[in-house]
């Protein structure tokens, strides 16, 4: 079996998570990791059998043995790293968002296209079995032509304000997953966005110029409507539900829970809360996304979640922010590129 | 519209419940009520527009205007009242059990047959929409040939010990409903009973010679097996579930709850407890059983729950008691009569 | 027991439904019914024990024995009938919407106030046990301060186009119930509406100048956001769900089903579809609303669903229509009156 | 990190499953595999990085580097292999049942005790998160003193008749898992068994002297009752549910499904069927049992599922068979050993 040799750029929480998951995939070998600070990573790297631990990501790009890189560094570094990796002929797995600037993202993706390497964006939710099933029910016609999409997406607790300040804002940091999910489930592009947002969870988030509660209405190219509701704090856990309603029926995905045990006592009847956060809820999806990336690189097949998908999600996030600021719906330019199915 | 004129014998809890429900049925007029003590019933009878309130049930039997009687007096009086009512040419609705003696019941039913009047036994659960649907799924072949029947039947709180002493015991008082449900759902007679019981809820029940917790295994004429589990105290409410498993699938009826609201908080995710007891759970079933009785009398159609059904449930209860005492399975005699469908 | 004597104006579907339900309430006597055409109603009126059947509603208003009237005639007649009934000193139960004109409604309600009679608007859903429980969970603080309201409201099949033409449009005819539910659950006034709508179910509805699919975003005076999604056709039945999410948790009401039976076969695992339409889903709510109206009239207590509630729902419907036409959010004037709790 | 070096005896379906799972546990190295026929296993062993592939299990027992063996060969070989492995000082993981003879099992376990090695029996269901939670709810007192235990355990399809003939019969092959689960959940020994069984699925099973449908009633040392229902064929999938009912409430574990998506169409409302069979349902439990075994060996901690647990399950299976044959309840001898918690 031929293996895919990888380098990881950025060993923060998500970078280390990917290393753990990549080690479960027999087709993959994680050879190298770079980070701006590596002293605290020595024993970790040893345990994970990483051969090369370096402060310079160029060591990875210059290593001819490395087939692909995972870009897990801060968002502001993504676009340049994509360009350099593409130039070095490496396949790319890049965390979301690609950048905070649609133009930067476009430039970076142009380099990827020129280089002919593959790029996958880290929209892990596309690999969740519940959402995959909902999408398949749309695609196979079970629910007919889609009319209404609903996504509920609420975090269990707000990030700290420092994170909020550098996050690009709720739409770019959090809702961007939902914008991608909307396109993924609907199989059609978003053509108009109307956003409403407010600060109800944490005043400090408002003082940092962001919102923590939002409802965003979408219009799709196929004529359907959609709505996303977001909150930075659902005290009962990570609330991740979707529904697509069409002329033949409706498909709803509920939250996952640790067990399906129901307990009845004199006080009440209870079941488990939703799984706490993305690490618990999307455990398998994180494994599946890197497995599919490896497969696409090794077998030269289509990427499920492309650079164009990353770009479109950013465009919608940008439009949502503009709608929030102007109080008006914002049109998105039609694009000749299509949703990858 | 021709109306059915009724007399009620016994104005205890169940008798008064029937009066309330009968008043919702346009085809019915409740003319008379008898009870051994009537002083405390005067204002009640007036409010319910009862014309005749008497201490002598014979006043009802002798009233030519009365078409049918409801026997809601203590069990020990049922058999004689049935005989007298039959002799008087009245249709009969009799609460369960018909009597504590299979022979007495047989004698009483023989009089009913001779008189050619109708008799319905108060197995109200046959009229519950959930159980009706399960039965229909058996009858229409959806689940195929039945292999296993499961009934869970647990009361929310034990009766007081005085009641227990005069109740005929758990099997005759409480499980008798489940024995009837078993025949009703399975559409086949019980041919063997094995009972296991114990005292876990209230030692006073044990001292009164009864049990409060039981598991009863049934064999049916069609070869299927069944199991009933009983408790006198489910602290979370009235637990009434059934399942029939067959070679094409399984059908399960769950408990009913006051609302379907689900509440998620930081502590837990809760839904409503099961409805508290039989008055709440079987509200509509109690209305439907008397409506069907009226219809059967007025239109001379088949009774859903016959005297034979009452007799068979008693026979099974008797066998269960014997099995509990002997520690061995007890066979039931085959009968040429059939389950009414 | 003192009884409330009623006259019914308009004996169409909803008028006759009310007669059936009113007959279940012991405190009520339905004496008279008026309709523009009564020939076909003779046997119905006899069966329902209606004393007076007339083509002239003034016969009801002039009858000193009549305490209250039910206005069940076409919407365009409501405002004048309210004024006349108020002038005649009758309490009023009026179907929704009060009128198609906020000004007309305001005028009619002013007459009601002057006359000092009671008026209740037929927002039957306020009496549904599921929604009542959700509201109580908001009011008792279980879910904390509300942040997001979600209402899904979809009919099982579209009305015919003739009805659509005279209905006042989706927002005034159908969503008006949801606008009322939004205020009822949130306990706070709507201050801004943004509506998106389209024609996806039936082109004839579009040709009649209406829409059949909509998403409406609401802002409340308490700072919360809300969203309603509507469709004129959910092929699986009447889809009526609500959720209120707050800083202490979330409360969700699901659809009601005829039974809770679950069937597992080799093909799939199924449960009952949602109850078909409003007559099935809101059976008990229709009974409860007239019972509460009778109680309020007889005991001079507060009406649960007032004329002001009817007026506010119309104002929101009007604003939604304007938002749909202009493509912009529409502000609602603050009002000194308060949501009745 | 010190690793546990393993040898696998028997590379049939379950042996190869364990190899796959063991490779996911970083603390484990699978060095050797023995099987009576190895020609077809060469490429598999290479892919799985097995160093030694042999037809002689003694090669494993004689290898000083090997710390523990997995006994995955046919049941009739287990007892001798346990004795030999114990004599060789190897820790032992043995598939269920230990043997078809209680005496043989006792002898084998005596050798294990003498040798002071650890033994774990492959009751994988003890590691299922649903059942673990139910057990914890019993142990922490949430449901109070247990009164009634219910286990539903049905396979999706019957084994072929050749397997049936060598399986030891339904109770020893299939119900043995449920007997273990009963002890595990109840935390108390079984003192009496009453078994009822029949052939409803496949006449060939009956001709082979076995049954395919059963209901088994249990009495526990703590006074509680229990019931297990079994079928060799549930056409909708692997049906694995448990409930424990106590004086403070009840805890129910439902089946697992591939997704939680609910689909509503004009025909019906569906959700996923139960996961197909044990490989799907207990995927994680199989991983967790070997992980815990490795941990217990490496850190010298208690085994969750001991040889005594294997022995007790066999004793109950034996008693169930005897009850089926005699038609009477069978008592189990009290034992001074206790349920391991």
From TrEMBL, chains A, B, C, D:
Query: What is the top-level taxon of the source organism?
Result: Bacteria
Q: What is this protein called?
A: Inositol 2-dehydrogenase
- Keyword terms, alphabetized: Oxidoreductase
Family to which the UniProt record says this protein belongs: Belongs to the Gfo/Idh/MocA family.
Which Gene Ontology MF annotations are present? inositol 2-dehydrogenase (NAD+) activity; nucleotide binding
Organism this protein belongs to: Halalkalibacter alkaliphilus
- Domain named Gfo/Idh/MocA-like oxidoreductase N-terminal is located at 6-123
Where do the coiled-coil regions begin and end?
none
């Amino acid at each position: 079996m031929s293996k895919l040799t990888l380098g990881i750029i950025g060993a923060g929480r998500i970078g280390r998570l990917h290393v753990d998951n990549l080690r479960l995939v027999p087709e993959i070998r994680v050879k190298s990791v770079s980070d701006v600070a590596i002293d605290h990573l020595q024993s970790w790297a040893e345990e994970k059998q990483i051969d090369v631990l370096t402060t310079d990501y160029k060591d990875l790009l210059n290593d001819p043995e490395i087939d692909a890189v995972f870009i897990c560094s801060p968002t502001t570094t993504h676009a340049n790293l994509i360009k350099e990796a593409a130039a070095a002929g490496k396949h790319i797995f890049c965390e979301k968002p690609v950048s905070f600037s649609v133009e930067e993202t476009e430039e970076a993706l142009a380099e990827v296209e020129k280089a002919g390497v593959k790029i996958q964006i880290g929209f892990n939710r596309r690999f969740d079995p519940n959402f995959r099933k909902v999408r398949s029910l749309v695609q196979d016609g079970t629910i007919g032509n889609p009319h209404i999409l609903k996504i509920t997406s609420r975090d269990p607790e707000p990030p700290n304000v420092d994170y909020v300040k550098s996050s690009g804002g709720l739409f770019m940091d959090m809702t961007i997953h939902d914008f991608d999910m909307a396109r993924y489930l609907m199989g059609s592009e978003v053509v108009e966005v109307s956003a409403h947002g407010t600060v109800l969870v944490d005043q400090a988030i408002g003082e940092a110029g962001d919102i923590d509660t939002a409802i965003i209405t979408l219009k799709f190219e196929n004529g359907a409507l959609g709505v996303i509701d977001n909150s930075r704090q659902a005290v009962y856990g990570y609330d991740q539900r979707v529904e697509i309603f069409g002329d033949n029926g409706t498909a709803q995905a509920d939250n996952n829970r640790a067990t399906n045990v129901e307990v009845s006592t004199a006080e009440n009847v209870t079941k488990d809360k939703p799984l706490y956060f993305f690490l618990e809820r999307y455990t398998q999806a994180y494994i599946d996304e890197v497995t599919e990336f490896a497969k696409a690189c090794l077998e030269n097949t289509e990427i499920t979640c492309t650079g164009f998908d990353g770009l479109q999600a950013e465009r919608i996030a940008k439009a949502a922010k503009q709608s929030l600021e102007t109080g008006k719906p914002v049109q998105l330019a039609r694009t000749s590129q299509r949703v990858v199915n």
